[in-house]
Amino acid sequence: MSGLVLKLGPKERVLVNGAVIENGDRRSRLSVMTPDARILRLRDAIHPDDATTPVRRACFAAQLVLSGDVSPEDMRHQMLRRIEELSQVLRDPDSRALLVRASDALLADEHYACLKALRALLPREARLLAHGDPT
């Protein structure tokens, strides 16, 4: 098993199982071998006040699991519902593929992969909201 690979920039912070860890002065690469470790890059974290759009709210929900603030079991139904709601609006093939990836990762308890797939939808959501186009 290869595990999760984190590439960290100088002084970059990451949350690992509730502990904030800061990288040193140089770039580094870490391999996380524990499959159920909860990892969140703090540069990717969404502040609660910024969870104002459908994709951002879905990302924030995944983030809460990764930060350890809620249990995966408590959030699973809500996250599946959010992904389903997004699939009703984001119908292009690329968005659909990302939503399937997020859903599959969620069902496999791979919350980092779920968050990664959802985060990939943020630029598309921003473009759609800027243009007022729902498709």
Structural class per helix/strand content? alpha+beta
Percent in helix: 40-55%
The SSE string, one letter per element, is EEEEEHHHHH
Roughly how many Å apart are the termini? 39 Å
Q: Give the overall pLDDT as a whole number.
A: 91
Number of helices: 5
Q: Tags for this entry?
A:
single chain; 135 residues; alpha+beta; two-stranded antiparallel sheet; 5 helices; 5 strands; globular
Question: Could you describe the 3D structure shown?
Answer:
The structure is a single chain. The chain is α+β, with helices and mostly antiparallel strands. Helix content is 49%, strand content 16%. It has two domains: 4-41, no CATH class; 48-131. It contains five helices and five strands. A three-stranded antiparallel beta sheet has the order 3-2-5. Strands 1-4 form a two-stranded antiparallel sheet. Strand 2 (13-16) and strand 3 (19-22) form a beta hairpin. Helix 1 packs antiparallel against helix 4 (111-119). The model has no long low-confidence stretch (mean pLDDT 91).
How do the helices and strands line up, and which of them pair or pack?
Elements: E1 4-8, E2 13-16, E3 19-22, E4 28-32, E5 39-41, H1 54-67, H2 72-89, H3 93-107, H4 111-119, H5 122-131
Antiparallel strand pairs: 1-4, 2-3, 2-5
Structure summary:
The protein is 49% helix and 16% strand. It is α+β, with helices and mostly antiparallel strands and 135 residues long. The chain starts with a strand and ends with a helix.
